[in-house]
Automatic annotation (TrEMBL):
InterPro entries: NTF2-like_dom_sf, SEC_C_motif, YchJ-like, YchJ-like_M. This is UPF0225 protein E3O11_06635. It comes from Cryobacterium levicorallinum. Residues 31-125 form the YchJ-like middle NTF2-like domain. SUPFAM superfamilies: NTF2-like.
């Protein structure tokens, strides 16, 4: 992806200055929200290995196959609880908008994150609404 392209997480930064640095392994997300944003961008760009690498070992699936018929369009962060640099647990509620075979849809989820040895991981999520 070209470094001047806007990041899929819609932070307003370029991909390389935002989630691209996490996907490349040059940085580690410092908050649960940044991990959520980087995971959304990984879904949008088809980076399944990054998703597996940032999934908590207790809940991580053995493999992950992304649906190529989904085109992720927009991420709305609705709220966060904890998940800061000094926290060990966090919650991020979001709505991710997509198109599947030309039909719009959305995924509304409350996701839980946990920090293990200084790194944030996606623990699990519950569909909301």
């Amino acid at each position: 992806m070209h470094e001047d392209v806007r990041c899929p997480c819609l932070s307003g930064d370029t991909y390389s200055a935002c989630c691209g640095r996490f996907h490349a392994g040059a940085a580690v997300p410092s908050t649960a929200q940044w991990l959520m944003r980087s995971r959304y961008s990984a879904f949008a760009l088809g980076h399944a290995q990054y998703l597996l690498d940032t999934w908590h070992p207790l809940t991580k699936p053995s493999s992950l196959e992304l649906d190529p018929s989904l085109t992720w369009r927009r991420l709305d962060i609705l709220r966060t609880e904890s998940g800061g640099m000094l926290d060990s647990d966090g919650v991020v509620e979001f709505t991710a908008h997509y198109r599947q075979d030309g039909i719009p849809g959305q995924q509304h989820e409350v996701s839980r994150f946990q920090k293990v040895t200084g790194c944030w991981y996606y623990l699990d999520g519950e569909s909301a609404g």
